[in-house]
Design a protein that fits this description.
CATH superfamily: Flavodoxin domain
Number of domains: 1
Number of helices: 6
CATH architecture: 3-Layer(aba) Sandwich
Number of strands: 5
Largest sheet: 5 strands, parallel
Bound molecules: flavin mononucleotide
Strand content: 15-25%
Order of helices and strands: EHEHEHEHEHH
Mean pLDDT: 97
Structural class: alpha/beta
Length: 193
């Protein structure tokens, strides 16, 4: 059975490059028989955080938040495609996560990072590792970082570097193990909702 995964991307810049990586990940999931749902903050235009989704009476949240909550609740796991802004988490990505909470619980997150430098966004990954578990997501041990993003992928997300597909397979094999392990365990219930 294929898994359904939210591919959460976090840049709204007009010159954004990371969409290449997000597109590549959606295609890589498809090739494995899984479904990747791209969550693009330019499509879901959330304001800077005022009220969290859970602070609204049921059924009264803005439509864009209801749509996102439906996506987050429906998936088996999260692949977070994050750049690195001043060694930290891009604000549109953090803003999108901060709107929600329980919608993420009891599922794994894999960290796919990128930058136009050599380090591939791993410093943002360390910050995501500190914050996502507070929202109920277990981050898997391996990271999938890509340096020199504009040269490594074309605009459609086709990789030019040899290492990309092999690294991605290893990473997604690990991620899938956690996705399926936690899904099997959720069938028996969760400690709290
Ligand atoms: C505000 C800002 C801060 C940045 N800080 C870093 C950084 O700390 N480390 C790094 O390797 N690249 C940094 N960059 C360069 C990014 O890696 C590069 O612009 C990348 O394409 C950004 O992702 P995006 O195009 O998806 O928005 C920064 C870019 C911006 C716009």
């Amino acid at each position: 059975m294929g898994n359904t995964i939210a591919v959460v991307y976090g840049s709204v810049r007009s010159e954004r490059q990371g969409l290449r990586v997000a597109r590549f990940i959606v295609e890589a999931l498809k090739a494995r028989g899984d479904t990747g749902i791209l969550v693009d903050p330019l499509e879901y235009r959330l304001p800077l955080l005022d009220r969290m989704y859970k602070e609204y009476e049921r059924g009264s949240a803005p439509a864009v938040m209801e749509r996102l909550a439906d996506v987050f609740r429906s998936v088996d796991g999260f692949l977070v495609v994050s750049g690195e802004y001043n060694h930290g988490i891009p604000p549109a990505l953090k803003n999108m996560f901060d709107h929600f909470m329980n919608e993420f619980f009891w599922r794994p997150a894999g960290l796919v990072t990128y930058s136009n430098g050599r380090f591939g966004g791993v410093r943002a990954a360390m910050q995501l590792r500190a914050t996502l578990p507070e929202q109920g997501m277990i981050t898997i041990p391996s990271l999938l970082p890509f340096g020199n993003v504009a040269e490594t992928f074309d605009e459609n997300g086709v990789p030019h570097a040899d290492y990309v597909r092999a690294s991605t397979k290893t990473f997604l094999d690990e991620f899938t193990w956690y996705v399926e392990a936690l899904r099997a365990r959720r069938v028996g219930g969760v400690p709290y909702e």
